[in-house]
Design brief:
It contains 8 helices and 4 strands; from the N terminus they run E-H-H-H-E-H-H-E-E-H-H-H. With 181 residues, the chain is α+β, with helices and mostly antiparallel strands. It has 2 domains: 144 residues, no CATH class; 32 residues, no CATH class. The protein has a 4-stranded mixed sheet with strand order 1-2-4-3. The longest helix has 16 residues. It is elongated and about 65 Å long. About 6% of the residues have low confidence.
């Protein structure tokens, strides 16, 4: 599912007020900021949903987040910032491609192209303008965390063998293994 956003909210208006000081954002940082604002707006219920390339590009342009040309913003959303695409030439891992031109913010645990290993997943926090510093807290405390360990298949097994040690539980499962066929 692709989400689209209307850029007329109170939050967007506040961001526009500080647009003059944010025009210095690099295109990559502007793409991250724009996408982070969109992701935060849709909330936890739509955590795994993304946005079309056009929606992100239009939002970044509407907020005047960078002096970069629209074509450059589009290229960053389409390729340069996308973790699971080969780096050409940028290596950042700020976005994750869901398919069909749909993107969402990258999270730890998402697949990424080997050529992007250890590349940045967000702007340099020290260089991010003050009006976007709240995105840091949101990103670190809400977005980039697994939801109660459900994203980790091993952690999801916790509690499966509540009344016996793990080795005994596995041995118990294997007792009639040969008879099951």
């Amino acid at each position: 599912m692709v989400l689209t956003m209307n850029a007329t909210s109170v939050e967007t208006a506040k961001i526009r007020e500080g647009a003059d000081s944010s025009e210095g954002l690099t295109v990559a940082d502007a793409v991250w900021v724009g996408t982070a604002i969109l992701q935060r707006k849709v909330g936890k219920a739509d955590r795994d949903k993304g946005f079309s390339t056009e929606t992100i590009v239009d939002f970044v342009q509407q907020l005047h987040l960078t002096k970069g040309a629209q074509k450059s913003v589009w290229q960053h959303v389409n390729q340069h910032c996308v973790a699971n695409r080969p780096p050409q030439p940028n290596r950042s891992r700020m976005l994750f491609a869901l398919g069909g031109g749909v993107r969402r913010l990258f999270r730890d645990g998402d697949r990424s192209d080997p050529g992007r290993k250890d590349a940045p997943t967000h702007p340099d926090w020290e260089k991010l303008p003050q009006q976007y510093q709240d995105l840091r807290r949101w990103y670190e405390e809400e977005w980039n965390r697994s939801v109660d360990g459900l994203n980790d298949p091993l952690l999801a097994l916790a509690g499966t063998w509540k009344d016996e040690p793990a080795d005994e539980y596995v041995a118990h499962l294997r007792e009639n293994w040969s008879n099951a066929q």
